[in-house]
């Protein structure tokens, strides 16, 4: 069997934020820098920008947060009015700087820069094929495979056909910001697994993983890039062309973007993330509400869920009866977050992860003492946070602690852009909800149903990637079940904007 790009846990996965801008006259570096700041939650391991001044590329890629990766002189050296940027998600182990992005390289067919969010499932195959044709690779990531394939196609095709051919060759999840010489492109995989949107600025256009980055630049969201679509920004910032290069019967939008990963103020695939989370909270009350004195979120991830849950709890009782004059629940902050502690996920050992939860969250005694409380969070992955919190809140004097989770149990890893831990580490992989309840020490525990997720996203189950909660993936993954459809390549007439 031919080698594949994804083996559980042993391949670098591109879990990231991407951006591209094309401006009329202004330098692109600073807007790219601000946009990367807005996308910082999508990746903290490294940050990079590549620009083009009409003659040549300029690039700066550094390990660390956006604010640390660039100084004034770096930004000044990045000249040109078009460019792309990237923030990379933290992964276990050390960063190989050759994997940091944007990936940039010059070929006979011109210079290319690439920022990738997602994960290919056949990168190894593509690399082997290209290596046999004489291409030399400097990193082991997917992104370089895409760059080489595209460069090869550009030798004998125009830009649009070259991208289409590459889209026919690579399989898996990808939202790409590409720079070919001074032209910026956005490409979203045919199932639209990772987000990518298009926006208009006063003096140009922008492509970004999330609309919050467009807001930061005082721009207007135009729309999501469609699954299988290529958007080409004109180098002078005056307009854009779009090409529907591949059409599939179904999408596979990642539901977890709305549940956890994306910013609440972003609009993704037509839904404002904050409203979806509140709606998920309302469903959670309808499905498994429990009458307690206090409802409190795990900050910050559980906030929108808890506010929707508490709103619904104040309208109907747990039995679904109108509340009338009966007093409802109190919605309160019962946990304080130390905002200077990073995500617990990047702690390499379980012991460090447990310590990090304690450092990060502290109960407010007066909110919980002598009360029955419901704690709301978006998800349980390893169970570290829930176990620690139940213990902390009980120690602070709560009489009962009920846990409500705004997503279904995570039973399988994510291979397409979100670090979900390995199957062995997932607390729900082989346990019933009752077994998990017992392990985390809660008085009751309920998750949300998959149907509620589809309903809150105004989508059918078939159009979502639910791999982490069903174990069935929309792309081929070795040793995993799949629900893949066949692509129907097409080329449509371009839709144009601007002049
Ligand atoms: P755990 O403590 O392992 O059960 O992780 C659950 C907590 O981590 C929840 O508070 C989530 O908000 C957060 N979380 C969920 N998914 C991720 C992820 N992929 N990376 C980092 N944190 C996450």
Features:
499 residues, alpha+beta, Glutamine Phosphoribosylpyrophosphate, subunit 1, domain 1, Rossmann fold, 7-stranded antiparallel β-sheet, 16 helices, disordered N terminus
Characterise the protein shown here.
With 499 residues, the protein is α+β, with helices and mostly antiparallel strands. It has 2 domains: 13-250, Aminohydrolase, N-terminal nucleophile (Ntn) domain (Glutamine Phosphoribosylpyrophosphate, subunit 1, domain 1, 4-Layer Sandwich); 274-459, Rossmann fold, CATH 3.40.50. The protein is 28% helix and 27% strand. The protein contains 16 helices and 29 strands. A 7-stranded antiparallel β-sheet has the order 3-2-4-1-10-9-11. Strands 5-6-7-8-12-13-29 form a 7-stranded antiparallel β-sheet, with helices on one face. Helix 13 links the parallel strand 22 and strand 23. Helix 4 (123-132) packs across helix 5 (142-154), helix 5 (142-154) packs across helix 6 (159-169) and helix 9 (273-288) crosses helix 10. Mean pLDDT is 90; it is low at 1-14 and 485-494. Bound molecules: adenosine monophosphate.
């Amino acid at each position: 069997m031919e080698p594949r790009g994804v083996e559980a846990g042993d391949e670098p996965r591109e879990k990231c934020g991407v951006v591209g801008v094309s401006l009329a006259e202004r330098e692109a570096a600073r807007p790219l820098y601000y946009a990367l700041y807005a996308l910082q939650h999508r990746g903290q391991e490294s940050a990079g920008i590549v620009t083009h001044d009409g003659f040549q590329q300029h690039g700066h890629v550094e390990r660390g947060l956006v604010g640390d990766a660039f100084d004034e002189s770096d930004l000044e050296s990045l000249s040109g009015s078009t460019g792309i940027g990237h923030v990379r998600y933290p992964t276990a182990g050390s960063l190989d700087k050759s994997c940091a992005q944007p990936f940039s390289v010059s070929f006979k067919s011109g210079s290319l820069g690439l920022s990738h969010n997602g994960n290919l499932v056949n990168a190894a195959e593509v690399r082997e094929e290209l290596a046999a044709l004489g291409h030399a690779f400097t990193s082991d990531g997917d992104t370089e495979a895409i760059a080489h394939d595209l460069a090869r196609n550009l030798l004998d095709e125009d830009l649009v056909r070259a991208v289409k051919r590459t889209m026919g060759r690579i399989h898996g999840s990808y939202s790409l910001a590409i720079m070919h010489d001074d032209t910026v492109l956005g490409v979203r995989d045919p199932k639209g697994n990772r987000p990518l949107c298009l926006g208009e600025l006063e003096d140009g256009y922008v492509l970004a993983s999330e609309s919050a980055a467009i807001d930061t630049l005082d721009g207007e969201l135009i729309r999501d890039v469609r699954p299988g679509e290529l958007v080409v920004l004109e180098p002078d910032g005056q307009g854009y062309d779009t090409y529907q290069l591949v059409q599939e019967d179904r999408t596979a939008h990642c539901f977890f973007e709305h549940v956890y990963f994306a910013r609440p103020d972003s609009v993704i695939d037509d839904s404002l993330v904050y409203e979806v989370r509140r709606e998920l909270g309302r469903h959670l009350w309808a499905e498994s509400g429990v009458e307690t004195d206090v409802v409190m979120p795990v900050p910050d991830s559980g906030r929108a869920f808890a506010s929707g849950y508490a709103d619904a709890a104040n309208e109907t009782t747990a039995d679904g009866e109108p509340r009338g004059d009966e007093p409802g629940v109190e919605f309160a902050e019962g946990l304080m977050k130390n905002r200077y502690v990073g995500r617990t996920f990047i702690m390499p050992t379980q012991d460090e992860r447990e310590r990090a939860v304690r450092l990060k969250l502290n109960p407010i005694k007066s909110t919980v003492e002598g009360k029955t409380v419901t704690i709301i969070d978006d998800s349980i992955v390893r169970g570290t946070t829930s176990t620690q919190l139940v213990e902390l809140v009980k120690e602070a004097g709560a009489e009962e602690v009920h846990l409500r989770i705004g997503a279904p149990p995570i039973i399988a890893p994510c291979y397409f852009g979100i670090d979900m831990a390995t199957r062995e580490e997932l607390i729900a992989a082989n346990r019933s909800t009752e077994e998990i309840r017992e392990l985390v020490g809660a008085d009751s525990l309920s998750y949300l149903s998959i149907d509620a997720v589809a309903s809150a996203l105004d989508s059918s189950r078939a159009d979502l990637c639910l791999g982490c909660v069903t174990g069935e993936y929309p792309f081929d993954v070795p040793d995993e079940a799949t629900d893949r459809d066949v692509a129907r390549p097409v080329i449509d007439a371009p839709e144009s904007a601007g002049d």
